[in-house]
């Protein structure tokens, strides 16, 4: 159930403490008749824009024991931890994306200072580098037939483009973010690997350029739209995660 999304709508959300590995519990009040306590995870804000994990309905205001029980269940299951599936584009799989351009076959997509970049990662790299270069595949936030990439070490943060540049940012629940964070896999444009078309700019693909990550077209006014090595730059090897 880690891919379904829940929002509190117009109701009040309380109890925003982070629980487990990136999870938290929110109590969304529904009036005098009772409440629904939602166990979610993601941006750790009071907007309840995270993945729905567990819930319980209570008669009246829930006791601390009920809240604690939801929290304990979330922690014990290990939401936000290793998923057990690796190296594929199946929802829930952990993966690392490796560049296939001849210059950069040892470089992987990672986040650095909130921006998405490529940089070398090896078995001797630091645990920080390995975690930054590991992503959890989710069903596309805007289209379940596509994918979104959730940060392994910043649960609730996703790769999304803004002004064609790609960043790691917390999911805010808006339709705009969902579209910007959704990428549709297809056969690699170079004849190898996988290319990822932007959901809301389908002629633009996830591309590395000068070590940065962009959604780029094959030719255009921007430097990162250069047609030189475009097919290779937009083709990625879906590899085993550096931080399973």
What does this structure look like?
- With 244 residues, the protein is mainly β.
- It has 4 helices and 18 strands.
- It has helices at 64-77, 127-132, 175-180, 230-233, and strands spanning 5-6, 13-14, 18-19, 23-29, 34-41, 50-59, 94-99, 107-112, 115-120, 135-139, 147-151, 157-162, 165-170, 183-187, 194-198, 205-209, 212-216, 236-239.
- Strands 1, 2, 3, 4, 5 and 6 form a 6-stranded antiparallel β-sheet that branches.
- The longest helix has 14 residues, at 64-77.
- The protein is globular.
Main attributes of the structure:
about 10% helix, six-stranded antiparallel beta sheet, about 240 residues, 4 helices, globular, mainly beta
**Count of helical regions:** 4
- Quick one: overall form? globular
How many strand units?
Answer: 18
Structural class: mainly beta
- Could you tell me the mean pLDDT? 81
SSE succession: EEEEEEHEEEHEEEEHEEEEHE
Residue fraction in strands: 35-45%
Distance between the termini: 20 Å
Which runs of at least 5 residues are low in confidence (pLDDT < 50)? 1-32, 40-49
- Profile the largest sheet: 6 strands, antiparallel
**What is the CA-atom radius of gyration, in angstroms?**
19 Å
Share of helix, binned: 10-25%
């Amino acid at each position: 159930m880690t891919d379904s999304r829940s929002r509190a709508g117009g109701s009040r959300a309380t109890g925003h403490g982070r629980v487990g590995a990136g999870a938290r519990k929110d109590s969304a009040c529904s009036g005098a008749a009772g409440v629904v306590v939602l166990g979610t995870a993601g941006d750790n804000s009071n907007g309840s824009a995270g993945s729905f994990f567990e819930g319980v309905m209570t008669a009246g205001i829930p006791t601390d024991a009920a809240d604690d029980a939801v929290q304990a269940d979330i922690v014990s299951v290990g939401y936000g931890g290793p998923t057990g599936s690796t190296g594929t584009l199946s929802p829930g799989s952990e993966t690392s994306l490796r560049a296939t351009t001849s210059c950069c076959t040892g470089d992987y997509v990672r986040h650095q200072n909130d921006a998405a970049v490529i940089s070398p990662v090896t078995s001797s790299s630091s645990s920080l580098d390995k975690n930054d270069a590991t992503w959890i595949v989710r069903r596309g936030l805007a289209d379940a037939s596509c994918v979104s990439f959730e940060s392994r070490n910043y649960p609730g943060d996703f790769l999304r483009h803004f002004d064609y540049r790609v960043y790691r940012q917390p999911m805010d629940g808006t339709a705009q973010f969902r579209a910007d964070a959704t990428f549709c896999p297809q056969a690699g444009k170079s004849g190898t690997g996988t290319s990822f078309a932007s959901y809301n700019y389908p002629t633009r693909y996830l591309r590395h350029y000068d070590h940065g990550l962009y959604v780029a077209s094959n030719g255009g006014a921007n430097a990162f739209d250069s047609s030189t090595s475009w097919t290779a730059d937009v083709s990625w090897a879906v590899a085993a995660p550096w931080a399973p």
